[in-house]
Input
Amino acid sequence: LRSSSLERAIGGSVLENRSFESKAAELGISVETYRSMVRAFVQDTASQLRELESAIASDDNEVAGRAAHAIAGAAENFECIRLAEIAREVQTAARNGESSGALAQRHDQLCAQFATLAQRLELPDCG
Output
């Protein structure tokens, strides 16, 4: 990942226009450490999205709810508010026992939001 692409995608539009420098300073860490944290967030989220998709396909709402919860928490930590909101909707739907078809539609919304981020970072999306 090129640092400028990563910062533009995460530090600019996704993290509510906060620069990597200001966020790293706020956390008391180096900019490179913060970039590494963001990279890990993106990789982990992609993995969680695959787990969520698998859980939905096997009608396992418990696992789907846990995966959505993990995505929401990580997204909130990185101030990816819309991603977190959609993940919370998926989590609630899974806990309420919604059908796999309904969960799949919500998963598609979640993937679309994540794909926007992945494209900005020049990474593969969750598809």
About this structure: DSSP finds six helices and no strands in the chain. The first helix runs from residue 3 to 14. The mean pLDDT is 81. Helices lie at 3-14, 20-27, 31-57, 61-77, 81-95, 100-121.
